[in-house]
Amino acid sequence: MIIDAISIKNFQTYYGDIEFEFDKPTNDKNIVLIGGLNGAGKTSFFSSIVLGLFGKNSEGIVFERSSGENISDSYENYLQDVFNHSAKKKNETEMEISIALTHESKNIKIVRKWWFDDSIDEILEIYIEEEGVVKPLELPEEEIELNEYYEAFIQSIIPSQVGRFFFFDGEEIKSIAKQDPEQAVVNGINALLGFNILDQLLIDLETLKRNLRKELPGAAKSGLLKNYDELEKIESVIKITDEEKKSCIEEIDDLNIHLEELEHDISEAFEGRDIDNRNEVLDKIFNLDKELHIVENHLQTLVGEVLSLAFPGELLLKTEKILKKDLNNIQELDQSKFVNSLKNKFNKQLMKNLPEDIKKKNSTIDEVKKSLDTTWEDLILGKNKSESFLNNYFSQEEISIAYNHILEVKATTSRDISRLVGKQEALVKEKSELLAMQQLFDSGRYAQDILDKKSNTLSKLSTKQHELERFEAELMVLHQEKINSKNTIERVESSMEVSKDIQKELESVENYQYLINSFMEEARAKRAKQLSKKTSEVIKKLAHKEDLINKVTIDEKTYGINLLDSKNNTVSRMSAGESEIFALSLLQALGDVSNRSLPVVIDTPLGRLDYSHRKSIVSNYFHNVSKQVFILSTDTEIDQNLYKEIKPYLIQTILIKSNNEKSSEIYNDEYFNFEEVNK
To answer: Where are the domains of the chain?
Structure first.
């Protein structure tokens, strides 16, 4: 289908008669770029296409029903709103939209007219050109109402249910591609993929089966009709319960997604810790204090007992040389001054050679100094403090023994100290973080809000899981009742005279139902896989490298959507840009998989996107999405730079302006003077 022209009269911003004529798309050029500032008439153009094609069936695309409002009332209210204000003031009463299109090599013209008097009257006309002659579309049967037949004819070309996938506002497309699609979207996908026809066929077959049963001779007398009614009631309850079960599963999925989001928030708030309340924080602090005390005691013990032996062996030799040198000159010196001088030199050499891990810790350094005092007395003066320091303590044999012992413990001691110091630092840091969390709780800034939400969500999830179990149990009972009811019917039928012809027809209907259900099950699975694959392919072309979405999977029954990242983890949160990219990708995939050749009309397509996403869509999306594409844009969406990117694919440009009378006017082959800039 290709749109050739649109004529508008007194619709929204278009006062009087306005006509758009479009050049035919080619293999290389498929885009009609329509520019206009906000309020100029772009959205009015968009709405004219939808309303002209679908009329009352435009619900959900250009108008919505208010709560409690029926379709007729809401449609009439919409028509009153879109009737041009200038026409109203001048007491004009007619509004008209005419769409000329090409479908399957036939030239078709759809005309809708409305008259606004005491009430709103609407007329639909369809004309077809055959062999150069334009004439009204003729009724195949006199019994069919003209308007009803015309609406059905349009629906055969483009079902209104699929309209939202080809005519859409860029600001609203995210609603089409929600991970939990609305029923209207599911119905649209069914229509787009052709499943709605099969669904209707199943309904018709069920009606036929019901009517055939009533024709069975003696059925009423035997109570068979009552049995059939009971079976239908059971099947109806099964259907309702099954829908309730599906709804419950969807709610559980939503709660699980919400729970994941809350877990993410909790992880961020508590830096990855699994914390549920203030008492848990206090317990963790208490346990940390105990562990920290043990580590510090161990470290102190290690330092006090063996640190003196961990310094390099060269230090001992240096100490011997210092001692011997000073002893030679001690004749007249005060012994106590000599001992203190020697101790200071000894300690200075030791501190210089300590491991770096120890030097960084003030608390550990204090322990080292205490240990040095003790070590000095034991190692230098000997255990007998009254003994003269001129004893033979520093004999070559003593030095050799001490040196060998030093070498044995040096490596082990250094590693143990480093490990303990590292653990001590980690525990102190963790305690500091927990104390900060305690302050959050105590100050009320956090106030258990996220944790309360998590608790409430878990409670709701538990309730819904119990509901699901109940639905599953009820369905088991109902299915057994269905089996029992069918067995009863078979027994009654076998005991009475049953028309063979009717029975044969009933069996045929049931066989058809089985075949259609089997086919639809396989077809849905196949289509879902195709949609998943195609959507994933498109999204990879459009998305940034840093975007999360890498793969899309679609449920074959519910059409529920699961988004996966590069590691196949579920993506529960998307940026505005990612959401729109995903929606556009899904829409293109739906068009490709359905094999429907329909024009695409996009109003304000790039408003929420950053520049790099815009460039990607302009370069890779628009010229691939359909054979004919209408883009309605402001000068900030498709700006001068993006105009250069899209120009090779343009069939034509149209600029819409608002004149002094606040009516829209069109200017062919113009677009915000970018053409002049690029000449």
So the answer is: 216-274+448-498, 278-443
Q: Which residue has the tokens 């959205």?
A: 43
Give the chain's length. Answer: 679
Report pTM. 0.60
The amino acid present at 74, given as its one-letter code, is S
Please give the structure tokens belonging to residue 473: 């149990």
Q: Which pLDDT does position 81 carry in this prediction?
A: 92
Q: Which helix (H) or strand (E) holds 235?
A: helix 224-269
What is the 3-class SS of 173-221, one letter each residue?
HHHCCCCCCCHHHHHHHHHHHCHHHHHHHHHHHHHHHHHHHHCCCCHHH
Helical ranges in 307-383 per DSSP H? 313-328, 335-352, 356-359, 362-376
Round the average pLDDT of the chain to a whole number and report it. Answer: 77
Tokens of 393: 């303590």
What integer is the mean pLDDT of 364-388? 54
pLDDT in tens, 402-458: 555 555 555 555 566 667 667 777 777 777 776 766 666 655 444 456 767 778 888
Which sign, positive or negative, has the C-alpha torsion 194, 199, 205, 207?
A: negative
Residue 90 has pLDDT above 80, yes or no: yes
Q: How many CB atoms lie within 10 A of CB 30?
A: 22
Query: What six digits make up the tokens of 597?
Result: 């050749």
Tally of helices (H runs) and strands (E runs) in the chain:
22, 14
Instruction: Please state, in angstroms and rounded to a whole number, the distance separating the CA atoms of residues 54 and 456.
Output: 45
